[in-house]
């Protein structure tokens, strides 16, 4: 869906509401809607009770209502308003956000209420310097991937409790601080069973090597 839409709107008298909206499990391909502000819902009734996955790109004004069904969310682009409302999706287990060249720090407590979140991907935040302050409070978080955030300076002071897998790619300062045994932030990730810090060139060499071994 692409264009100048301001609201995705359903009402109880429409065929869409009575049928498709109620059974909708996936919102995919919603992109380039700069004026889109929200997903309408009827008073006292959740509009998308079966919605499981939301995949949205470049809708900077979009905010989310309280939805209890979605498990996966992917946002591409600058989402200052949207990030503030992510906490309304309190059943999320997977969150991917990325491709933002403006954000320096995330909204305060934008991850609050995400008590079921297991996987978080933060990628291509070119100006980002600070990770979410409430990241350390996500006790269910098992996997964290931070990719191409060249100005990111450090991990949360509280560390990353419970994390089982950490992947950091092309985050130069963060890679230095997390260097095994001597980086300032090494103690924050030393307990993680699977942690990997890579530059793209090294990653490319590994891929070439693996492909070569399979030939």
Automatic annotation (TrEMBL):
PANTHER family hit by this protein: NB-ARC DOMAIN DISEASE RESISTANCE PROTEIN, PLANT BROAD-SPECTRUM MILDEW RESISTANCE PROTEIN RPW8
Residue spans crossing the bilayer: 196-213
Keywords in alphabetical order: Membrane, Plant defense, Transmembrane, Transmembrane helix
Any GO BP annotation: defense response
Name the record gives this protein: NB-ARC domain-containing protein
């Amino acid at each position: 869906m692409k264009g100048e839409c301001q609201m995705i709107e359903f009402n109880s008298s429409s065929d869409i509401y009575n049928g498709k909206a109620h059974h909708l499990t996936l919102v995919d391909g919603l992109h380039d809607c700069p004026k889109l502000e929200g997903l309408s819902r009827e008073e006292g009734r959740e509009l998308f009770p079966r919605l499981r996955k939301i995949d949205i790109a470049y809708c900077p004004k979009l905010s989310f209502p309280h939805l209890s069904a979605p498990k996966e969310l992917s946002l591409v682009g600058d989402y200052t308003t949207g990030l503030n409302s992510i906490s309304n999706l309190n059943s999320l287990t997977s969150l991917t956000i990325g491709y933002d060249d403006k954000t320096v720090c995330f909204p305060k407590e934008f991850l609050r209420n995400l008590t079921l979140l297991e996987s978080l991907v933060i990628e291509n935040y070119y100006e980002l310097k600070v990770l979410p302050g409430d990241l350390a409070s996500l006790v269910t978080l098992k996997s964290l991937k931070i990719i191409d955030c060249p100005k990111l300076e450090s991990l949360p002071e509280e560390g990353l409790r419970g994390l089982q897998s950490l992947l950091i790619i092309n985050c130069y300062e963060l890679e230095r601080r997390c260097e095994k045994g001597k980086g300032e932030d090494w103690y924050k990730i030393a307990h993680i069973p699977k942690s990997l810090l890579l530059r793209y060139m090294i990653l490319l060499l590994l891929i070439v090597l693996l492909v070569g071994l399979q030939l």
